[in-house]
Amino acid sequence: MTDPPGSPGPVPTTSGQTTGDETAEPRARTPWTAQIITLFPEAFPGTLGLSLTGRALAEGLWTMRTIPLRQFGTGRHRNVDDTPTGGGAGMVLRPDVMAAALREAEAATPGLPVIYLSPRGAPLTQATARRLAAGPGVTLISGRFEGVDQRVLDAFEVTEISIGDYVLTGGEIAAQVLIDATVRLIPRVLGNRESLAEESFSDGLLEHPQYTKPAVWEGRATPDVLLSGNHAAIAQWREKQAQCLTKQRRPDLWRAWTGRKAAMDPTKDRQLSGALDQARDRRAHRKDHSDEPDRAD
After folding, report:
1. What are phi and psi of 108, to 5 degrees?
2. Contact, 174 vs 202, CB < 8 A?
3. Where is 178: in which H helix or E strand?
4. Same structural domain for residues 42 and 177?
5. What is the pTM of this model?
6. How far is CA 76 from CA 90, 95, 96, in A?
7. With contact defined as beta carbons under 8 Å apart, do 109 and 140 qualify?
8. 111-170 tens-digit pLDDT
9. Is the CB of residue 116 less than 8 Å from the CB of residue 158?
10. How far apart are CA 95 and CA 148, in angstroms?
11. Residue 153: what are its φ and ψ, rounded to 5°?
12. What domain count does the chain have?
């Protein structure tokens, strides 16, 4: 289908990546694709068209396509919703309307996972973003009103993801959050790949504090260790700061991180192995003694 005016379609590749040129260098991968089913296609690309994600979009490292839900509506007014069955406030997006949009998305780009941005979904995490970035793309449902009829979510095996424990007026902002978190992990989108390894959640911890020039600002000094030139000491300080911040602000992440570290601790593995060996030796010793014949008085 053709996107309506003002709705961004797939971005063409740059001149060095055009098809039909036998001398052109082949692309390493098909551009990551985001399809968004929405009542407000004009909301995209929004901030995704700016800075690094916008440049990557223009360069064809990823593509975006909006699917206006309204055009699949029913009746003269193209209604997309109806009252909740069983009563209640608000309106619910109809299953037949959403199914038509999902079939359009599947026909355009087959095989993409379908995600519904919903406050009852599983939390969006860095691990989820990495997994999505490694795939071909995603089809996103931007909900409105009281949500989407459950039957269409079940029929299309839709995954629900939440960006936080709060409610928005619609899923467009949430869709942009998920896309931004994912696109920045695509190769060549960020100029410095090392920054991905050092930022929050990359190792399960929050990121350490950052400082820049001037060394002293309004009486507040940069920590001396960062000015020392001792890279080992700097790395140790940053690791300690990351641990302290995570423990204070995100005890859930801290518990998960310490649990993983304990599971991977070779010292504890050796201690456990040694304890098991000792227990096995004691059992064998008791068995040997129990097998000895009784001595005569």
Report:
1. -75, -45
2. no
3. helix 172-183
4. yes
5. 0.76
6. 21, 18, 16
7. no
8. 999 999 999 999 999 999 999 999 999 999 999 999 999 999 999 999 999 999 999 999
9. yes
10. 7
11. -65, -40
12. 2
